[in-house]
Amino acid sequence: MKGIITIGLLVLSNVFMTLAWYGHLKFKEFKLFENAGLLTLIFISWGLALFEYFFQVPANKIGFQGNGGPFSLLQLKVIQEVITLLIFVTFSFLFFKNETLKWNHILGFCFLILAVYFIFKK
Question: What keywords does the record list, in alphabetical order (predicted)?
Answer without folding.
Answer: Membrane, Transmembrane, Transmembrane helix
